[in-house]
Amino acid sequence: MLGAPRPRSSRQRFEPDDVDHQMRDLVVMMARGIVDHPDEVRVDILEPGEDAQLELSVDPDDLGHVIGKQGRTARALRLALGAAAAKHDRQASLEIAD
Amino acid sequence: MRPRRDTTGVAPGGDESIRAADDMAPAHDLPMSPVMHESRGEDARGGEARDEGGSRDEGGSRDEGPALSAADLDAEARRITEALLAAMGFPAKVSSRSEGTNVDVTAELSEDEDLLIGRKGEVRQALQHLLNLTLNRGGGMRYHLQLEINEFWRHRESELQTQARAMADEAATSGREVVTEYLNAQERRVIHVALREDGRVKTYAIGDGLIKKLAVAPAGQPEVARADD
Q1: Is residue A46 part of a domain?
Q2: Mutate to test the interface with A, among B120, B129, B147 (most CBs of A within 10 A)
Q3: Does A83 sit within 8 Å of B116, measured CB to CB?
Q4: Residue B48 burial by Cβ neighbours in a 10 Å radius (0-12, 13-18, 19+)
Q5: Neighbours of B12 (CB within 10 A)
Q6: A3 occurs within a structural domain
Q7: What is the CATH number of the domain that holds A29?
Q8: What is the domain range of residue A35?
Q9: Are A79 and B51 a contacting pair at CB < 8 A?
Q10: What pTM, to 2 d.p., does this model score?
Q11: A48 within some domain
């Protein structure tokens, strides 16, 4: 986000809208389904909008569960999120905090 | 921070067993003791407050919940699928049918099925993986959920069966190995099974990782040694 100044018009929105919240809720819900500590699941909207960035945090013991063998579960979470975002003509990326 | 990726290979050799369902099965990274039979008498699949601390084993292994009846398995599979699709914003009519520990779930939707299926079915596969993890959260891989989206899989299956027969003919006629595109475990299984009884050819997977190619070769021919591509 730092770097060359951009024209004002292309600046990212700061406030998440309904779709951003829906995407966040989706990741929360999917993650809660597969972890041992659902109460520790947290999803932050790092950047809202057309090309959103979400970050998933879980209990350290659950990291393996949300990543999965060969990253398979993390990939599945991203694909599901991507499909949901695509429905709104958006993209959304998901990182897992460790 | 980028998520870590475990890149250790899974395939021990060139050949793979026919039990593709295992490859399909969601697996956890954490070490888990094989089976825990001390049931606490609570429904481990129920959801929220499963965390009572205290009697945890090393490695965070989970209790096996009581076995689900066919009706309960049906209902649970349908419930988690409806919840996932609703959260994704894809309203769908969901039905399910179970047999033993397998449950077939069908989601019918009138629009945006391409998004839900994904390129080469990868989104459908991802959803199936997540649903299996959710369905089995209480214990090992006891139940297997097969997700069908607008009959996608049935179409794909018959397409692969047709392809398998054509490849067998070609391998038998030409005397040379014929190789598929990259297929997931479930897709490869269809071809293995379709050609199991065909004495002219043998089938084996090529490569490592979850997505492999599959070769159909004349039965008498030794496997071609090769580096991964």
Answers
A1: yes
A2: B129
A3: yes
A4: exposed
A5: 8
A6: no
A7: 3.30.300.20
A8: 15-96
A9: no
A10: 0.63
A11: yes
